[in-house]
Amino acid sequence: xxxxxxxxxxxxxxxxxxxxxxxxxxxxxxxxxxxxxxxxxxxxxxxxxxxxxxxxxxxxxxxxxxxxxxxxxxxxxxxxxxxxxxxxxxxxxxxxxxxxxxxxxxxxxxxxxxxxxxxxxxxxxxxxxxxxxxxxxxxxxxxxxxxxxxxxxxxxxxxxxxxxxxxxxxxxxxxxxxxxxxxxxxxxxxxxxxxxxxxxxxxxxxxxxxxxxxxxxxxxxxxxxxxxxxxxxxxxxxxxxxxxxxxxxxxxxxxxxxxxxxxxxxxxxxxxxxxxxxxxxxxxxxxxxxxxxxxxxxxxxxxxxxxxxxxxxxxxxxxxxxxxxxxxxxxxxxxxxxxxxxxxxxxxxxxxxxxxx
Length: 357
Prior knowledge:
- By secondary structure, the chain is an alpha/beta fold.
- Helices cover 59% and strands 7% of the residues.
- It has helices spanning 9-14, 19-30, 34-46, 51-71, 77-95, 120-131, 145-155, 170-182, 199-203, 213-221, 245-251, 253-267, 276-299, 302-318, 326-334, 341-356, and strands at residues 107-112, 135-140, 159-163, 187-190, 208-210.
- α3 (34-46) runs parallel beside α5 (77-95), α4 runs antiparallel to α6 (120-131) and α12 (253-267) crosses α15.
- The longest helix has 24 residues, at 276-299.
- The two termini are 35 Å apart.
């Protein structure tokens, strides 16, 4: 692929639209040309683009488009990884192009919840907050909750910004939110895992939610929220967990996956000819279904589960893999869970969603 040079960057900047810059950057990323990618943005900065605009109006949307390209099977995993790595290096370089204001507003810890490896959205927030005068401790991807709390006790931030992109991390996020509040620090939640409208952030008791980095920075500027006066346990936010369905499905994950994969060989004869690697991939897909089922049980939300199933069907179709095996997989999962009313409801509605997708 031929990478376009930064020619035309000035026109893009003066034209007031970031879209041409996104095209230039994406071409460079997909060519794996780090220097061309950096050149696009550095030239734009020289022409009047601000660092915050480069971060949020160019890099962020391009990274999102790369993710969509992977989902649609237009990009390989390797291309996605290269693009992410290059963007991460450019963000680091941009941080030194514009020193933050001298007068610090306060201190904020930015971290991804434990098990969350998609760190770039949190990185964009951290850099935006720095540009706006905050002292930021960026803990990066996959911050174990005990280590996060230890850091809060040591640093005493005004606010914690927790990021998660994958909904199956919501139970872990809930524990982290509760622990941070118990340490006396309010929590601002963000990322796709919390829902496009922030419904899961509110459900899990976060002190605030923001749909993007700019909104998060504005909320932070308004002053930290007041954490709960009395520490509480996560189960107090979600009384439906008393039925133990979430706990039992989570603990039985390995058995459920194994029995479902074995049963599929009888329901879908083509699976008998699968290679060992294909069987492993099938087991991974079933494991994801069980994980999302458990998470939907945790938050008691049908849409989380049905949305995941229809998304998965689209991914499989884009890769030329028959999505029809999802329906018998749900039926097989339902057999050992027949005495679980909420799980049975979720599986039934998941099957209906697939039938109409």
